[in-house]
Design brief:
This protein is α/β, with parallel strands linked by helices. Helix content is 34%, strand content 21%. It has 14 helices and 19 strands. The model has no long low-confidence stretch (mean pLDDT 95).
């Protein structure tokens, strides 16, 4: 029996001297914490990337004007008037604290086991930085150090916190980036059918805190029948924001939503594999899905806003019993946005809703926000990516006009006006933001090959 495609890719991965050398750089990157939310390691990792790209021959700009340094590494083509290809990536990760279980090694160590690589950032997003650099170096090694296209890597350090200050960096370096032929987004996944997903957009987000102060101090719970508490008040306020089926009840929330085109709906219906059963299997859900019918489920997931309680805090949660009426209650909230919805517009509508419903004691505090974006998947540069991927992916591709996740695509497009497509090395269970974040070695090497072929397509 012959070897499978994945077995061949794993063999090629270990036989590739450039990829193996760069794997040690990835190992070091995984081992270096860079978490914007905790103000940990950002400058150290950005400096490491600066040195890494300079060693590869790039002209590198390292700018630490704002909280997270910006790294821009440029490789020039060997011919005049060459087109420009941009890779957008981020070097920050989410935390990996004690609330997450890691069975495959430690989160900030690169662990290789049974054909997979594990570690915080191996998929989201440090692994993509190293793999794409390997692809460029492999092309140069075969062509005397030359490139047929200008290649620019832009790497930020606040993507997991709504890309704080990215707009300022892009405005500062716009003249270096404007007019590019294509921008490849940070990452992407293969679905459960092993098809390579190529996505052209993502949802936006606005996050905010809500809080209630109902009294100057906690009150003895014997008064629970006659005194309202911050807890009950806030719970009622939050309940007013969403219907039992998950639809947002805030007046005006859907008025500005840009409806998907027939083609966008058709692409999602053809290629999207997400379903209530699929999510139940992945996450072990014990509660029923809010939407069951497939078309309605996909439209909600990809093209409609959603509101979520990220966390609640109120009262006494320590050992034993403390009989009080809590004087304070807080919650962390988010709304996932679609094109047409601007973060501050959404938050203003929520404030108006709470006041109109009699919950004027709820204080709403904006924390971060970013708008949504959808690409034109018929743009010639994106069509070329799709065609290359179809040739190189045995299981085929799944073309999606957007993803349900969030990122700064809108910010990048508004600044650069460049077609954007995302594809990567993740799999249907890469567990981004969770314990045992992973990529398969076969998918990692396939990504290197596809990026190398994309560079070659400009020759």
């Amino acid at each position: 029996m012959g070897k499978t495609h994945d077995e061949k890719q794993i063999e090629a991965f270990y036989a590739d001297t450039i990829v193996q050398e760069d794997l040690e750089d990835l190992r070091k990157l995984i081992g270096m914490k860079s978490i914007f939310a905790q103000a940990v390691g950002l400058e150290e990792v950005a400096l490491y990337l600066k040195n890494l790209f300079e060693e590869a021959g790039a002209q590198v700009i390292f700018d630490k004007s704002y909280a997270a340094p910006f790294v821009m590494a440029s490789f020039s083509a060997s011919r005049p008037n060459a087109k420009t290809l941009i890779f957008y990536n981020h070097y920050d990760t989410v935390p990996a604290d004690s609330d997450q279980v890691w069975l495959k090694g430690q989160p900030f160590e690169l662990t290789i086991d049974a054909g997979f690589m594990y570690g915080r950032g191996v998929d989201d997003d440090k692994g993509h930085i190293v793999a794409r650099l390997s692809a460029l170096k492999k092309y140069q090694a075969k062509h005397g150090g030359q490139l047929p296209v200008n290649v620019i890597f832009i790497m930020e350090g606040a993507e997991e916190s709504a890309s704080v200050d990215l707009d300022k960096y892009l405005a500062k370096y716009k003249e270096h980036l404007i007019g590019a032929d294509l921008l490849i987004w940070e990452q992407g996944h293969r679905n459960s059918l092993n098809q390579l997903e190529i996505a052209g957009g993502n949802k936006g987000i606005v996050t905010f805190d809500v809080s209630v102060q109902s009294a100057e101090l906690d009150i003895h719970s014997s008064y629970g029948g006659v005194i309202d508490s911050a807890s009950w008040y806030l719970l009622a306020a939050l309940q007013s924001l969403r219907s039992p089926d998950g639809r947002i009840l805030v007046n005006g929330m859907y008025d500005q939503v840009r409806e998907p085109s027939e083609r966008e709906l058709a692409l999602v219906e053809e290629f999207a594999l997400a379903s209530p059963d699929n999510l139940k299997q992945i996450y072990g859900l014990s509660l029923p899905s809010l939407v069951q019918e497939r078309k309605a489920f996909l439209k909600r997931l990809y093209f409609e806003p959603s509101i979520t309680i990220e966390g609640l805090s109120t009262g006494y949660l320590g050992r034993g019993v403390k009989t009080i009426i809590p004087a304070q209650a807080t919650a962390k909230m988010e709304v996932r946005l679609v094109p047409g919805l601007e973060p501050h517009y959404v938050l203003d509508k929520i404030r108006q809703h709470l006041t109109a419903k009699g919950f004027d004691k709820v204080e709403v505090t904006y924390t971060l926000g970013i708008q949504s974006y959808r690409s034109d998947m018929a743009a010639p540069a994106i069509v070329k990516v799709i065609e290359l991927a179809e040739k190189m992916t045995p299981a085929g591709v799944a073309v999606l006009p957007t993803s349900p996740g969030t990122g700064p695509m809108y910010t990048v497009f508004q600044a650069l006006q460049v077609p954007i497509a995302g594809f990567g090395m993740g799999n249907a269970n890469s567990r981004d933001h969770a314990g045992d974040e992973n990529v398969s070695i076969a998918d990692y090497y396939s990504h290197v090959e596809l990026v190398e072929e994309l560079i070659a397509s400009y020759a």
